[in-house]
Amino acid sequence: MAVGRPRGFDRDTALERALEEFWRHGYEAASITALTAAMGIRPPSLYAAFGDKRRLFGEAVRHYQRTHGAFTTRALAEEPTARQAVERMLREAAVHYTDPAHPPGCLVISAAVNHGPDSADVEAELRALREAAKHAVVERISRDIAAGLLPADTDAEALGTYYAVIVQGMSRQAQDGADARALDRVATLAMAAWPAEHP
Fold first, then answer.
1. What is the mean pLDDT of the chain?
2. What is the pLDDT of residue 189?
3. Residue 50 sits in which domain range?
4. Residue 156 falls inside a structural domain
5. 100, 150, 173, 186 — which has fewest CB within 10 A?
6. Is the pLDDT of residue 15 over 80?
7. How many Å is the maximal CA-CA distance in the chain?
8. What is the number of structural domains in the chain?
């Protein structure tokens, strides 16, 4: 047992609580004092188990992607067409981003909106994850174009970027108080922009 670690310390539970603190307040505003209070541990336990705040955040982001944020990857992998995958992604975002069981919106979208120069690497990490998510949508659309399911002149890059913008806006709206029903209506309108599919 590491020095400073309290009896009964549950690393996974502590990580989830740290994740929620970062999710609710963002990277910079989540102080060590606030994090350790949320995690139910003392600072020495945080450093012993997770390293420093930056490494804790990186691990929290990876945990988020495996759990709360995994619905986007599942939709792209499991649905038979890009249209079905994107629609599922948007409709599930409406539900997940407004679930009262956790902070609203998406951690990867909002955790480093405002940051100082000392946290530029945090924003770079999250930007890379957002770009990777967008690229996954573009790739899924490109596969359907190649398969003849979408018109050959479909702009996969622009279409994928459009839906990335929609997802980011839905996250912000959830943080501003929009409910799942309102965001689901946004998803319906957004899907009206989808190109006519070939039979």
1. 91
2. 98
3. 11-63
4. yes
5. 100
6. yes
7. 64
8. 2
